[in-house]
Every structure is written in structure tokens, then in C-alpha cells.
């Protein structure tokens, strides 16, 4: 006998969106201040870029720990513990008197914020599958890609009025909001099982994921698509403020072109999914990503202007909104009993691709050349991996997770379909 999930679709959408927002917001909120920090700490651009690169590193790698920990100890306690670390690191960043302390604080922030992406997707997989899962992933995806686009606007407006330290005050407040929602609104969706805190079992889980063609192809579609947004965050501040000549406030407002395109696309996707289903809208999204990639590649030929830079960025972002919900659902679908580990590895690939490409761009040194070369390559990876995914045999249908409460009041684990190799 099946029962209703212990949290409604709307509630999971809200909590998941809040959890997933903390990482991108923390990554991008202070990007308008990066040029000011060079002068404040009397250091170089490359050193200040490390505050973003190491945040990426902590954020991407710590997901590999956060997800499996939540499988073993529960979603709620792991979320609270990681967010407390995030809040402490935000306070340290606010009080930092040297760039070295700021770099360390940003790395710790990334570790704390990593729990959001892993837990949000695991929550969805614990309770929902199929079209319901895609609808929730659609909303979560809005926040996940909207965050790094909208946050510079907020940071750019705060910077001239309150100074760069105020940005970390806002991050601290956001961290405590997430903790409050976790304590008072989020229900536990897995049974605590400390036997899962086993290196051999964890290695087995990741080995299963890394040998699944379905998981790898869908993950790298997302890595190539959404990872480009995170890579762009390391290029765009310097392109738009140095090459194009925008002020920090103008830069923040200019990023509304990216967030607006994604938001418009996501609203359209919600309507299209009810008519055509989620699977049929992925290919049109990849066509927009391809168009954005081609437009970005022209930065290698013609000098940049605002429209020359941001129109391809907007096209790319519009396409991501079509791709994210279905590919996220497809990546996690076969792995119900290890949803935390699967969501963590998916997030690692997604953020790790942005980290790697952003780091390569930093080594190149020329942000304009790096963006024109590397972002189209990420678009090509997304399109190629989707072509490989379409060649796989269809996944066997799985009963929807029932997630019934046990006698102890805890939900039982959902059924896992056999993963496709």
C-alpha cells in the first residue's frame, strides 16, 4: 500500500531551491568586488581569482562527502552541520584582514555550501520520480543557474553603498535562514544507517556510478551546459569591466541578461513539459546552447561589446533551462538507494567542469580569449554526450517511491532500479 510522500511536491521544490541557491549565490555575489579587492589587499588579480577558484574546489570536492554522509546519517543533521561551517566561514571572510585569510575562508565556505546541491537533488530522488521529479528539478534548476547570474546584480548594488564586507554579512544571514528552514520545515527522508559509513561501500557506490553509461552521459550533458555558467563567472567580470568598460554596478545589472534569459526559458519549459513531456524539449535546448557557443566563439575574431558578449551568454542560458530538469532526473533515476552519492557525484561533475575550465582560463591569462575558446568547447561536450545518451537502451520503468513511515516514524528507503551499464 502506497502513501503520500512525507513532503509535498511544492514543499520539496521550495526547500530544494533554497538549499541549492546558497552555493551559486556565495560564488557570484561578490564577483563585482573582485577588482576592488585587488586594490584593498594590495595584491594581484591572479591572487584574488584564487578566492573564487578555491571556493569552487571546496564546493565541488566536498559534495563527494556530503551526499554519502547524508545517506548514512540523514539529510537534516548533515545539512545543519555543513551550514554551520558555512556561517562560521562567512564571518571569518567578513573580518579578514589579509587576502590569505580571505582565501581560506572562501575555501571553507565552499565546503559548507556544497551540501545544498547534493541534499536538494537527493531529497527529490527520495520522494519523486518521472515527470514530478522533472517539474521539481525545473524549479531547482532555475535557482541553480539563476543564482550566479542574479547575485552579481545584488553585489554590484551593495558594493558602493555598504562596502565589500557587507556581502559576507548577507551570506551569513542566508546561511542561518537555510538552517532555520532545515530545522523547522524539512522532514527526514532516509533511515539513519551508520553501516554506510564504510570506505569500501562508498567506493563501491562511486564505482557503480562511474561505470554507468547512463549516469556519465547525462552528468556530462549537465557538466557541459550548466558548468559553463560557473566558468563564465571567472571570465565575465574582467571582460565586461576591463575590456568593455562597465562599472561594478553596471556589471551587476548587465548580468540580468543572463538570469532573465534563463528565467524566461524555465517558465516556458514548465508549460512545454505539460504538453510535450520533459524528454522532447532537451534537443531544442541543446540547439540554443550550440547557437550561444558559436556566438561566443566569435570573441576570438571580433572585439567585444556588451551585446557581442551577453547575447551569446543569454542564448546559452536559455538553452540550459530546457536541458537541466530532464537530464538531472535521468542521471539519478536508477540510483534510489544511493541518491545522496549519485547527487554528490553529479554535482561534482557539474561544478568540477566549471572549476577545471575556469582554472584553465586563469592559466591562459586572457579572459576574452579563454571565454571564446573554452565555453564553445563545453557546449560541444553537452551536445556530444546527449547524442551518446540517446543511443543507450531505454531504462526499465520503476515504481514511484512510496517513502512510507516505519513504525519508528522514519521513512523507508525507496526502491532502486537496476542501473544501466
UniProtKB/TrEMBL annotation:
Residues 400-421 are annotated as: Disordered. Keywords: Cell inner membrane, Cell membrane, Membrane, Transmembrane, Transmembrane helix, Transport. PROSITE patterns: MFS (PS50850), SUGAR_TRANSPORT_1 (PS00216). GO terms for biological process: xenobiotic detoxification by transmembrane export across the plasma membrane. Its main location: membrane. Residues 12-397 form the Major facilitator superfamily (MFS) profile domain. The keyword Cell inner membrane applies. Gene3D superfamilies: Multidrug resistance protein D. NCBIfam families: efflux_Bcr_CflA (TIGR00710). This is Bcr/CflA family efflux transporter. The gene is bcr.
